[in-house]
Amino acid sequence: ENTEQQIAVDQHFSHKDYQKSGSANDIALLHLAKPAVFNKFVLPICLPSKELAERELMKEGRQMVVTGWGYQDEIAQNRSSVLSYIEIPVASRNECMAAMINVLSDSMMCAGKLGDKQDSCGGDRKS
Question: What residues form DSSP beta bridges with 68?
Answer without folding.
Answer: 84
